Amino acid sequence: MPQPDGRPVQSFDQKNTLLEAHAARVNGAGDPALVLLHGFGTDQTIWGALTPRLPPARRIVLYDHMGSGASNLAHYDPARYATLEGYADDLADILEALDLRDATMVAHSVSGMIALLASLRTDRIGRLIMIGASSRYLNDGDYEGGFERADVEQLLDLMALDFQGWARTLAPQVMDQPERPGLIQELVYSFSRSNPEITRGFARATFMSDHRSALGACRVPTLVLQASADMVVPLAAARFLADGIPNARLEIMATRGHYPHLSAPDIVAEAIARFLAETEA
């Protein structure tokens, strides 16, 4: 018998297999739960600076997108993950496996769209917090996404030609914290330890995606958190995202770079706490 949202009910074995495949971890017991979704090129360890600053006595769920971190690559299907839809299906399935309700998605970068797409599949998502997210990364007419298609193709070519060189080149640019070399090195390590072929596929699915048409269908309260300077997501793209979601607001943080949860975790944690106080009352 299907669930109220039409998705098939998972068996006990299916749930365990799914959670193990994504290296899912649950800490704490308080609800509504916070589900932390990492972005392209990283894994759940990227949240290490933020999690101790999140509201206490709260259930926190972390997992790795398929093909990232400690996920089981035996479950990776190139066709399923050629677009963000496959990752959104995974998220909806994980929420069902953990029987989470009214959960808050804290989603970085491309995971913002993954979480939004999942919110159209399941009623288990109560609110979205997007950090450095974008509905479209490519410039398109009057729309400013930040990249030309040729830029992305060059990035993909570099990943294929010299994956370690790509990691060392990209990390300092997107971190944008030159005075903090330790953070840059942490990001280089995160990029370079991932599977090159799978990461390149995730990059293509990310940077070639266009989910602007889905924004208006989102019905859950949404916070768009954006650094004041981010080479991956220009402010125009962040404003477009917030304006396109019916119940969303944009908050620009006094920090720079695409990884504020790593470089400015106190600022991010304070913004999350304020939003939860507004929407969980």
From TrEMBL:
<feature type="domain" description="AB hydrolase-1">
    <location>
        <begin position="32"/>
        <end position="264"/>
    </location>
</feature>
<comment type="similarity">
    <text>Belongs to the AB hydrolase superfamily.</text>
</comment>
<keyword id="KW-0808">Transferase</keyword>
<dbReference type="InterPro" id="IPR000073">
    <property type="entry name" value="AB_hydrolase_1"/>
</dbReference>
<dbReference type="GO" id="GO:0016787">
    <property type="term" value="F:hydrolase activity"/>
</dbReference>
<dbReference type="InterPro" id="IPR029058">
    <property type="entry name" value="AB_hydrolase_fold"/>
</dbReference>
<dbReference type="Pfam" id="PF00561">
    <property type="entry name" value="Abhydrolase_1"/>
</dbReference>
<dbReference type="GO" id="GO:0016746">
    <property type="term" value="F:acyltransferase activity"/>
</dbReference>
<protein>
    <submittedName>
        <fullName>Putative hydrolase or acyltransferase of alpha/beta superfamily</fullName>
    </submittedName>
</protein>
<keyword id="KW-0378">Hydrolase</keyword>
<keyword id="KW-0012">Acyltransferase</keyword>
